[in-house]
Write a sequence for this structure.
């Protein structure tokens, strides 16, 4: 038995991609595995002649809804199974005769059913389970309680440490996007854009350290620099559930330090199904009512329920505008008291008016085979961000005042296509799959305009204002003279990032059993994945219109646009000719002025008219950051699950991964004092990386009692460098004072992960879990800067041209030689009070709390001059050396504490949910000196959702988001109470109607 790719066996395929030494190792390992499979195959096939199979579905006796995760056992043995996403289960190798099935599901009555099993035949059963409810009252499980119980039972049935968002919870009171849904799980912290969740950190590890999949198909990175995925692309209405796996098994991709998030698409159930939703909304910041959302899903099964088809569609638009404040400070001695205090050096006041819209669709089809199925899914989502950014820049340190405006549009397309086949041969299960995924991010024609006022302070400014005053007072320093504010610069820029990925994979699972006590399976498989990625920029800019030349361009503007009232021969073009009437009194809560605004329509016309005449390609901006490359991954794994009685499950295994990448970019040398029209010097460069890893994974599950479950895991995982960290883009500045260079020898970081999770189940207590984790991360990739020294070994491949002398600063990335640690503990309690009398039984409660501690020793470098020994007879008498130093800090994007509380209430057709989120500060920027570290402020947010069922399968609902009008704040350690960043996005509200049938 062997796995095949394109007609070739996996060992042969691997031999083409690895050295002879590695081939021999893998070949030997697979020979052993194949011998084991053959033995198990022979024994299991023989045993199948005296046994049969039981298949079936488990449903709620009253509603008929499937009970995902319900556990089924043959009484007196450990033969069993858990109901899958369709509520179906299969138990193979059941001894012929009459057996008793025992079905259990938290908060449901245990069910026992006798089944007659014939040798070589399959018995099919339908198990209908009753909710515990209250004696003498109508047994009706509430909407939110059903979603909670489904998640709990799926988590109980999992063979690893995971958290679940169930289909019921997503569909009954949906969130805006997938990130919002995941963000309420323990150990998850959220990052936001315009108030909307768009990325998640798992257990304090940045979004780029997580893997996102849709129906098991990996989602490509959506940004231009790192490997993170923008989850705001994906509407939660299209999902059937979410699973966050925190301790990986060998059959999952290993590049997930934090964990893996699998988004499960909705599939067709029996019978005609329709679901339509329409909503409108309000954004308080811009006082707009233009938000909307439309969702539709239809499905049915055909040909005696063998073929299922579901079509989904969604479109929405939200105002995601925000007001942003940036402050920079220096620490200076106040001569009045001799104390070092913060002094404002610059303020950047920014308004972003953003329309964010999504358009998506999905087609999911499955065809049921005898003991198998064929699955096809395609999923498309488009995210559009379009808007205007107005900035009022107050440069206190050099008395300069700038007004800028950006007119931008960014479109991100995400496409996944997957095809899979599963077949159960009773003695062996095989699944194979192929997928194609594409991520395409484009910014077509983004416009930028800048006006500047020099010597912009009022006369005798500091006679009235103290330089040590808070930032709110600094705006009073500036004269705001629009007649002395002139057009300085403009450009138009396009960006395009594209990633395409093809994956082939196959898995073989062979069950085994020894008596009624020991059972399990052996599983092995392989994967081949190839990714192609590119990043391309094109930028055209004006000549400098404020200083010196550019007279011909100014005259062209005055001639072509006479309505502006400009005169030919003007030395500068005043902002008053381009002034807009737009303004806002509530900008930044009224604490800072938005100032004069630019009329974007006029500026866009000028830029478009000037292109190809006075606007030249800015070569460095257009070519210096471009890159393209290919990555190829090959993986193989082997694992086994051994069940000893009903109480112990042991699952050891390993995963082998080999990576190869080749990226091309530019070596850019900007010449000192370039002549007009002289471009930088470019050289094409290519970097190749090769690595392979052998990663053990061990899981142990102990159930001393039916209501207690202890899970232990030791796993090894990895994370690969960001694209910009090793694509060979080398830039030497014009003044030879700094160099930006990648590290082409950078290695993937690896982690040793230790996990323990204890769960307690009780019909009234509910589900309580405490999980502890500890991670040791080696070769963590980190930004480094150092002064160049001849013979330095930090970047041994870096060779600078002879024109570079002295000690320029080198900016690069390195593998941290020190081990980073992350540890923490999670508490999770999910319960509903069904046993309370009267209306109190509708209360549903979800509480979780996470505490995280991380420690990383970050390397730093200092350039020292040391005496030459023995002392030479003539200079130089010293030589430069790099001295290694370090400082200790926590991991970026890691909060110390995260707390989520959700209180739900259901009463007949009414449902309400109040959600509370609290997380402590996170590190956003690590400086050389701890005094320069920057952090977010603690964050607390309240959201409310309500829903009411109406006759004829109709519902009305409302969502109130950020009810407490919370803003985002950042601070710097040494500055104290003065903020370095503020973002206001305000309160939003949605009201809608929904129709579901049946």
């Amino acid at each position: 038995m062997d796995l095949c790719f394109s007609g070739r066996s996996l060992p042969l395929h691997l031999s083409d991609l690895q050295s002879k030494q590695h081939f021999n190792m893998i070949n030997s390992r697979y020979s052993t595995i194949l011998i084991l499979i053959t033995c198990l195959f022979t024994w299991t096939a023989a045993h199948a002649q005296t046994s049969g199979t039981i298949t079936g579905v488990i449903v709620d006796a009253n509603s008929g809804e499937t009970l995902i995760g319900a556990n089924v056992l043959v009484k007196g043995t450990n033969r069993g199974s858990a109901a899958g996403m369709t509520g179906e289960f299969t138990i193979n190798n059941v001894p012929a005769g009459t057996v008793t099935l025992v079905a259990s599901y938290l908060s449901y009555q245990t069910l026992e059913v006798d089944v007659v099993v014939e040798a070589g035949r399959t018995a099919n059963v339908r198990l209908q389970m009753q909710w515990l409810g209250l004696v003498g009252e109508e047994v009706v499980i509430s909407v939110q309680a059903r979603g909670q119980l489904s998640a709990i039972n799926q988590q109980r049935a999992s063979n690893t440490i995971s958290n679940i968002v169930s289909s019921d919870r997503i569909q009954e009171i949906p969130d805006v996007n997938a990130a919002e849904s995941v963000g309420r799980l323990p150990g998850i912290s959220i990052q936001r854009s315009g108030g909307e969740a768009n990325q998640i950190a798992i257990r304090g590890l940045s979004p780029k350290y997580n893997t996102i999949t849709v129906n098991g198909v990996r989602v490509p990175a959506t940004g231009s620099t790192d490997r993170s995925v923008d989850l705001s692309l994906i509407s939660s209405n299209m999902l059937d559930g979410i699973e966050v796996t925190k301790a990986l098994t060998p059959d999952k991709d290993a590049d997930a330090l934090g964990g893996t998030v699998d988004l499960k698409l909705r599939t067709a159930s029996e019978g005609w199904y329709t679901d339509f939703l329409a909503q409108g909304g309000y954004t308080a910041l811009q006082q707009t009512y233009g938000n909307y959302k439309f969702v539709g899903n239809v499905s049915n099964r055909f040909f005696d329920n063998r073929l299922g088809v579901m079509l989904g569609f969604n479109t929405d638009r939200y105002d995601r505008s925000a007001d942003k404040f940036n402050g920079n400070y220096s620490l200076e001695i106040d001569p009045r008291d001799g104390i070092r205090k913060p002094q404002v050096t610059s303020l950047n006041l920014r308004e972003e008016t953003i329309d964010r819209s999504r358009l998506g669709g999905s087609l999911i089809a499955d065809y049921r085979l005898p003991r198998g199925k064929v699955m096809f899914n395609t999923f498309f989502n488009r995210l559009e961000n379009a808007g205007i950014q107005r900035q009022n820049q107050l440069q206190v340190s050099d008395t300069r005042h700038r007004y800028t405006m950006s007119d931008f549009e960014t479109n991100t397309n995400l496409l996944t296509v997957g095809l899979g086949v599963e077949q159960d041969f009773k003695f062996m299960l095989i699944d194979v799959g192929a997928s194609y995924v594409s991520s395409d991010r484009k910014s077509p024609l983004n416009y930028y305009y800048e006006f500047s006022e020099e010597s912009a302070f009022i006369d005798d400014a500091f006679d009235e204002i103290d330089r040590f005053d808070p930032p709110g007072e600094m705006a009073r320093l500036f004269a705001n003279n629009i007649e002395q504010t002139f057009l300085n610069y403009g450009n138009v820029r396009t960006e395009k990032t594209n990633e395409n990925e093809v994956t082939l994979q196959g898995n073989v699972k062979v069950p085994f059993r020894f008596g009624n006590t020991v059972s399990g399976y052996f599983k092995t498989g392989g994967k081949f994945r190839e990714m192609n990625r590119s990043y391309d920029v094109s930028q055209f800019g004006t000549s400098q219109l404020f200083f010196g030349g550019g007279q011909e361009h100014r005259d062209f503007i005055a001639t072509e646009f006479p309505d502006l009232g400009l005169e030919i021969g003007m030395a500068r073009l005043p902002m008053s000719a381009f002034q807009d009437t737009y303004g806002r009194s509530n900008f930044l809560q009224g604490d800072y002025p938005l100032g004069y605004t630019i009329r974007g329509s006029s500026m866009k016309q000028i830029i478009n008219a000037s292109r190809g005449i006075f606007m030249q390609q800015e070569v460095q901006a257009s070519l210096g950051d471009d890159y393209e490359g290919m990555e190829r991954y090959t993986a193989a794994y082997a694992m086994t699950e051994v069940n000893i009685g009903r109480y112990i499950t042991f699952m050891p295994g390993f995963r082998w991964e080999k990576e190869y990448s080749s990226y091309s970019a530019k070596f850019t040398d900007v010449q000192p004092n370039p002549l007009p029209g002289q471009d930088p010097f470019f050289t094409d460069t290519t970097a190749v990386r090769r690595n392979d890893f052998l990663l053990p994974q061990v899981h142990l599950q102990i159930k001393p009692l039916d209501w207690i479950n202890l899970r232990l895991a030791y796993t090894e995982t990895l994370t690969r460098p960001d694209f910009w960290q090793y694509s060979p883009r080398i830039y030497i500045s014009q003044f030879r004072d700094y160099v930006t260079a990648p590290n082409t020898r950078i290695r993937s970081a690896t982690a040793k992960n230790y996990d323990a999770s204890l769960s307690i189940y009780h019909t009234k207590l509910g589900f309580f879990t405490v999980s502890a984790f500890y991670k040791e991360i080696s070769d963590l990739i980190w930004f480094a800067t150092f002064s160049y020294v001849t013979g330095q070994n930090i970047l041994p491949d870096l060779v600078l041209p002879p024109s570079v002398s002295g000690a320029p600063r080198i900016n690069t990335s390195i593998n941290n030689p020190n081990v980073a640690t992350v540890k923490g503990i999670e508490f999770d309690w999910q319960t509903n009070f069904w046993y309370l009398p009267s209306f109190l039984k509708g209360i549903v409660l979800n509480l979780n709390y996470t505490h995280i501690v991380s420690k990383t020793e970050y390397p730093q470098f200092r350039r020292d001059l040391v005496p030459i020994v023995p002392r030479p007879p003539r200079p130089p008498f010293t030589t430069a050396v790099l001295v290694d130093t370090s400082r200790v800090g926590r991991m970026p994007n890691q909060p110390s504490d995260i707390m989520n509380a959700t209180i739900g209430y259901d009463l007949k057709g009414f449902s309400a949910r109040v959600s509370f989120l609290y997380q402590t500060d996170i590190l956003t920027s690590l400086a050389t000196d701890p005094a320069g570290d920057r952090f977010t402020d603690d964050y607390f947010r309240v959201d409310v959702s309500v829903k009411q069922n109406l006759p004829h399968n109709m519902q009305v609902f409302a969502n109130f988001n950020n009810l407490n009008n919370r803003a985002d704040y950042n601070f710097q350690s040494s500055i104290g109470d003065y903020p370095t960043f503020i973002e206001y996005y305000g309160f939003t509200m949605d009201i809608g109607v929904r129709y579901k049938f049946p």
User: Anything to note?
Assistant: The first strand starts at residue 4 and ends at 5. Confidence is low (pLDDT under 50) at residues 1-23.
